[in-house]
Design goal:
- With 208 residues, the chain is mainly alpha-helical.
- The chain is built from eleven helices and no strands.
- Helix 4 packs antiparallel against helix 5 and helix 6 runs antiparallel to helix 7.
- It is elongated.
């Protein structure tokens, strides 16, 4: 970090060193008012703000500034943090977008992908949940727990979407499930589901 020459920077550093949170907060805000992309100030201010609704918008802005200059795992962590802030505000669309970006940029995406699938489930967005499980299985094909959880949800989605006569999503879910390591009964159910929905759409060749 470059040595700061401004009075505000010296005040912020001194207040931080002395544990004077209020003075440090105001000094850091003043720095960011003059230099919006000051990563040092944004990072320190973020640690001082309380995790409450009153500071949510400010914290969201700070995390966004840090994301702009971050790469790799640091960026993935910040995206996941911003996703949580979006969730707290009820903006599930932005939360899911950040989780997807975080998972794609992380070397350890397991929890991010599971959270992405769960957010899609909460939003009742079957297409997005199927896409999340597909990505999870592509990234973590040898993770036994991920495969088991995916199989459970895919079998459920195949059944419920078929009952709702959403044959496109039902077929996608059944086919994804059938490609996993399943018990003999579950495998039979998955392929039987594929056959039923193919017949339901007039695809008799696919039902064979």
């Amino acid at each position: 970090r470059l040595i700061r020459s401004t009075d505000r920077a010296r005040l912020a550093e001194g207040a931080l060193a002395l544990g004077r949170a209020n003075a440090a907060t105001e000094a850091l805000r003043a720095i960011l008012a003059d230099e919006p992309q000051d990563v040092w100030a944004a990072r320190h201010l973020l640690t001082l703000l309380p995790a409450d609704p009153a500071s949510a918008s400010e914290r969201l802005g700070l995390v966004s500034r840090l994301i702009d200059g971050a790469t790799g795992e640091e960026k993935a962590d910040l995206l996941a943090r911003r996703s949580e802030l979006y969730q707290a505000q009820g903006d599930l669309t932005s939360a899911r977008a950040d989780l997807l970006d975080a998972a794609q940029g992380s070397g350890s995406p397991k929890q991010l992908l599971r959270a992405l699938a769960e957010l899609a489930r909460q939003a009742n967005d079957v297409g997005a949940e199927l896409a999340a499980w597909r990505l999870a299985l592509e990234r973590l094909p040898d993770d036994v727990q991920v495969v088991q959880d995916a199989a459970e949800r895919l079998l459920h989605l195949g059944k419920t979407r078929e009952e709702a006569r959403d044959f496109v999503r039902a077929k996608e879910a059944w086919e994804m499930a059938a490609g996993l390591s399943l018990s003999p009964q579950d495998r039979f159910d998955a392929w039987a589901g594929v056959a039923r929905v193919c017949r339901g759409t007039g695809d008799f060749a696919g039902a064979e």
